[in-house]
Amino acid sequence: MAAPATAGPPDWDGHPEPLAVDSAPRPAYGSGSLADLLPTLAAGMGVPGTTAAIGELTPVDRACVFLVDGLGWEQLKAHPDEAPYLTSLLASSRGGTGTPLTTAYPATTATSLASVGTGLPPGAHGLPGYMVRDPATGELMNQLRWQPWTEPAVWQPYPTVFERAAAAGVHAAQVSSPIFQNTPLTKVALSGGTFHGRLTGEDRMDLAAEQLAEGDRALVYTYYAELDGAGHRYGVDSDTWRGQLMYVDRLVQRLAEQLPPRAALYVTADHGMVDVPFDEDHRIDFDLDWELRAGVALLGGEGRARHVYAVPGAESDVLTCWREVLGDRFWVASRDEAIEAGWFGPQVDDRVYGRVGDVLAAARDDVLIIASEREPKESAMVGNHGSMTPAEQFVPLLEVRS
Hints:
globular; single chain; alpha/beta; six-stranded mixed sheet; Alkaline Phosphatase, subunit A; about 400 residues; about 30% helix
């Protein structure tokens, strides 16, 4: 992933030159992204229709993926004292290189979990952001909370890797909080095999180890969300976040020490996080900015990865305005430019095309486009994510083998 580009000299209007769309550091789709992890593991178990895209991973009969929400690669490397066990795995994982994976764009939970579970980039699975427009209704849809409700199998019609594995005779299981068992996001992203709800992290680790031993071949997924919540509320260098990281470190070691024979544990995450200061220079309020609101029908996405839906006929004007106002701090692209640049993967399905904003704004600096009136809770978060900077895109892929 290339380093973020810098803005050019001011143009004749006195505004810095906008960042070039193709200078955005795109995810490593097809070779080292989250979407490549489960297909690589399943291919090693002989599951039809899956491909081993991550070449450094040696096939294993029993694999457990432990996804820690919000555990960015850069944040982990910055806190070795809080995570001694995880830190010990950095240099020995992924062929001894300690190389991170990238998430998808945007680097947000709904998009990443769908990429993990389906093995597809967002342009195919169709969850290209936190909030996107439903072309059938013209309304914004929150893809994390699934509001307003729409038929999951229509929104995301592809089979998950767990479904493919179960059909091939692999023991497939998910071990997570009971609250996630019947959510639409779980159905479209992580269904297949059996779901096991457990409240505590310790219980999840113990049960994940048991599930790994259930068959000659097993593919198990487990999840922990509270690190992400601490980052959103208090920031990724807060005492609360550090305490959560210490707990995650103990959970990983607990599971690693229980691995059955011929098994491997893979620790990864859905995104990293950036703390954004609370001032007008870093938090641009869409609800109070008449220039940014002009010609905009719907504001989707999230603060660091906005989908902007224009009033019909105003698409070009909105793109011009957003580039002029934000272009030295955000990569600002039209829908077609972002698709052509590969932000959402090598191709975008027809059913997904209209979900992508007419204009997209991806933050390069430590900035946000908040909406204080329509998104008060999101606008008050300390830690944020979504864009293509290394702090958000890079996630660990740590391996322990029995």
